[in-house]
Amino acid sequence: MNKINLLYAKNVITRKATVPEQDLSFLVLVDDLAFDKSVDVAWAGEDGVWHTLAAAYHGKAGRNQEYWFARIAFAAATDQSLPGSVQFALRYRVSGAEYWDNQQGENHSLQADSGIILADKRPLLNVEFGRRLADGQTLLPVVVAVDTALQARRVTIHWTRDDWRSSRKSACHYGRNYWDSEFLSNARNPNHYGCQIWNTVLKVDAACRVQYRISCETRREVLWDDNFGQNYSVQRRPLTVMILNLHCCQEENQDDKLSRIARAIDAQDVDIVCLQEVAELWNNGKGDWQTNTARIINERLKSPYHLVTDWSHLGFDRYREGVAVLSRYPIERHQGRYVSSSRDPYSIHSRKVVMAQVRVPYIGLINVFSSHLSWWEDGFAEQFENLRQWAADEHTPQVTTTMLCGDFNIKAGSRGYQFVVDSSEYDDQYLSANSPQVFRRIFTAKDAHWERYLDEDHRIDYVFLRKGSGLAATAGRAVFTEQDYGRVSDHFGYLMTFEPT
């Protein structure tokens, strides 16, 4: 196999709009050789002018391969004709090397309004598949391209809404007027490239995730497209959570950095943000809401979030210092509570946590605790135990997930971290997403020498997820580093992605 391969290309002229429109799209398979890479399509229409169309990452494809997808559409105009028939080649640039799929220099070609062409040796292929179920979407169309030479007798979608605890079958329909009924296109089914289109619609209702594979029955055998053994998966928008200690207004260019944080929240489409060392002017202990850094960040978002915040003690001799939760989704209930024995506003060891109960679409109620606890020698164990008990009391049968988020002032692998591990109630989600083998040794196998695995891990900020929660971390990374949005605090931020289990 080459490092880059065409899976299918589509050339359709639709007349559903007020003027004819031409749609060109390309699904590409590449070897995952490095994180930084680019994929594009070099193409020319009937005018012979060459263009470059960038492809975008479309998802994982089995082991060490990725899907990339490119699409462009044109509307007919009096001063410009449609591209018509096209010729094209695929280019993959990675680690200083360049790879091509160009038919050994002859280029691929695809006639105008001809439908889909399958790459060589692809007798059966799921086409135009997405990765996300939109809010409110209850029907999932599936389109399958089949080599006419197979003489397919039956094409079936085998699918599940509950991770294969139960499964269903939906028969696909083959109609010769597919392109006309769907796009008012003149493409034939099958077309002159020997490609048939079969399709169906799955009634997914309010499912968070749908997995499926495709079978094609011929007179001799049953062929499968199961996404290289991984099955296809389509799901609702994942939940993204960001944590960040703001450093209590001690940064140079502080106002600019608050704006940068807001831009990052927008750019990363974050759902829930837990902030620590939120500052507002002391004002004789009365505070000054206009100077509250969580409020400032929130008001600089494209669309302000729901916000709850509370303060614990005097910080840096001039601020009320506290914690906050910002949520894209409504906060149904919230509370601030001291988890420290001290409640003296002039003591740095007075520590208050904010809890926000958020209802996330398709996931349910989530209890999020934004926390800033003391160091081990200054009361961490007592504070974590109080927090753990509070969270346990709030974790009612209606609650799907409980998260303890923020600055815990315990290094990974330290005595304080061991205290969390030994509680056997909460798991480190960043470790789960980035080092699953180490995670299992610590939180599942309880390896007697687990501390050594974290010698180089200097985190003190965490998202701890209650065991048995209906979510799992699928990705996690540090943000506000020198390479990622720049430093905005004396802490890194952490961005976590969660999906329903």
Task: Give the tags.
7 helices; 45% strand; mainly beta; six-stranded mixed beta sheet; elongated; 501 residues
Descriptive overview:
With 501 residues, the chain is mainly β. Helix content is 13%, strand content 45%. It is built from 7 helices and 32 strands. The strands form 6 sheets. Strands 12, 14, 15, 18, 19 and 20 form a 6-stranded mixed beta sheet that branches. Strand 3 and strand 4 form a beta hairpin. The longest helix has 15 residues. The protein starts with a strand and ends with a strand.
List how many beta strands DSSP finds: 32
| Rg value | 27 Å
Count of runs of 4 or more consecutive helical residues: 7
Termini separation (Å)? Answer: 34 Å
The class by helix and strand makeup works out as mainly beta
Name the average pLDDT: 95
Low-confidence stretches: none
Strand residue percentage: 35-45%
What can be said about the biggest beta sheet?
6 strands, mixed
Q: What gross morphology would you assign?
A: elongated
Approximately how much helix is present in the residues?
10-25%
Give the SSE layout:
Layout (H helix, E strand, L loop, with lengths): L3 E11 L6 E11 L5 E8 L5 E5 L1 E5 L4 E11 L10 E9 L2 E5 L6 E3 L4 E4 L5 E4 L4 E2 L5 E9 L6 E7 L7 E4 L1 E2 L3 H6 L11 E9 L5 E9 L4 E4 L6 E5 L2 E7 L8 H14 L4 E10 L11 H7 L6 E10 L3 E9 L3 E8 L13 E9 L3 E9 L7 H15 L4 E9 L7 H9 L2 E3 H6 L1 H9 L16 E6 L4 E9 L13 E8 L1
Parallel strand pairs: 12-20, 21-22, 27-28
Antiparallel strand pairs: 1-2, 1-10, 2-6, 3-4, 3-7, 5-6, 7-8, 7-9, 11-13, 13-17, 14-15, 14-18, 16-17, 18-19, 18-20, 21-32, 22-24, 23-24, 25-26, 26-27, 28-30, 29-30, 31-32
